[in-house]
Design goal:
By secondary structure, the chain is mainly alpha-helical. It folds into two domains: 290 residues, Rhopdopsin 7-helix transmembrane proteins, CATH 1.20.1070; 45 residues, no CATH class. The protein has twelve helices and two strands. α10 crosses α11. It is a multi-pass membrane protein.
């Protein structure tokens, strides 16, 4: 009876209040910085992809989907900033809370999915050169991108529970078989969306690097570019997604053991690393540049002063070209991503 009362008491406690107001004030200012930097950066990237680079002509549909996911993530930040400045880990309004959870986890899932697809594309191009690259065939079809977004929907729905964001699951409610199964399913979805793609990413990176070592000098330029692509994805993954997943696992373990003081620290570490994960929208443009120098050159020619363009734009012979226009000026830019 006392155990049941204890669980009932736990379920009534508001675990979504920040345990340290100063911490959440600092995190809100960090998110303000991410928003101030991320909004113009992603708007400019979106503009270049649509009006200068013409992504649909340059077989960069998957890259464009990452741009869309990043932009939607940036659009969610002001709401999170408002909550953190009021020492709240989530909205007290159920509709706002569920909408935010849906948007944040859908966009993060989309970023992960398309980053992994790009890495697999480089893997097949380098390690299995000469064989039919199924990823290269699929990325020409916009329907595949729509299918990826639709596939992510059922994986995102389990996170649309207000207790999820605060890890308020196992041990917080009177345990029933239903609660135990649904809570476990939510956590499994969360962790598999990060750890399985990370294993795939590490495998692709190791195979590409090994392939690079076996190649002759004349073939190494293209392979080095492939290594930079997958390494840039590794950096994004290791910085943005992996730490918060590890922190969540630690937090859940601490809560199951009912260690109150350690829990307060674990909560702050987890929320801090979640804020760090939002830098994904700032780091992804590095991936665009490494994946496609045509995009990089289009971006430089659009936003950099004229005197810097000749120094920054790389010209490589033997590559295809794309023509982009800006007003009355026409530029022919090399395309490396094939």
């Amino acid at each position: 009876m006392s155990s049941q009362q204890n669980m009932s008491t736990n379920s009534s406690i508001d675990h979504c209040k920040g345990p340290n107001e100063v911490t959440y004030q600092i995190l809100s200012y960090l998110m303000i910085g991410e928003f101030v930097l991320g909004l113009p950066l992603n708007l400019s990237v979106l503009y270049v992809f649509v009006f200068r680079f013409k992504f649909w002509k340059n077989k960069s549909i998957f890259l464009f989907n990452i741009v869309v996911a990043d932009f939607l993530l940036v659009a969610c930040l002001p709401v999170k900033i408002h909550h953190y400045q009021h020492n709240l880990r989530r909205s007290e309004d159920d509709v706002v809370c569920k909408t935010m959870l849906f948007m944040l986890f859908l966009n993060r899932g989309a970023s992960i999915a398309f980053l992994i697809i790009l890495s697999l594309d480089r893997y097949f191009n380098v390690v299995h050169l000469g064989r039919r690259n199924c990823v290269k065939v699929l990325k020409k079809s916009p329907q595949i991108s729509v299918f990826v977004w639709l596939l992510l929907l059922p994986l995102t729905v389990p996170t649309m529970v207000k207790t999820f964001e605060c890890c308020n699951s196992h041990g917080r409610q009177v345990e029933t078989k239903y609660h135990d199964v649904t809570d476990t399913f939510r956590e499994v979805v969360f962790f598999t969306q990060i750890f399985i793609p990370f294993i795939i990413l590490v495998y692709c990176t190791v195979r590409i690097v090994n392939r690079l070592r076996k190649k002759t000098v004349g073939e190494k330029t293209k392979l080095r570019r492939a290594v930079w692509v997958v390494m840039s994805v590794v950096v994004v993954f290791s910085t943005c997604f992996l730490p918060c997943a590890i922190a969540r696992a630690v937090l859940l373990g601490v809560r199951l053991k009912d260690l109150k003081e350690a829990e307060d620290i674990a909560v702050q570490v987890y929320d801090s690393l979640m804020v760090l994960s939002y830098t994904d929208c700032l780091l992804d443009p590095l991936v665009y540049c490494f994946c496609n120098s045509g995009f990089k050159d289009a971006y430089i020619s659009t936003f950099c002063p004229t005197f810097l363009q000749k120094k920054l734009i790389t010209s490589e012979s033997g590559m295809g070209a794309t023509t982009t226009t800006s007003g009355v000026r026409t530029l022919t830019l090399p395309i490396i991503e094939k």
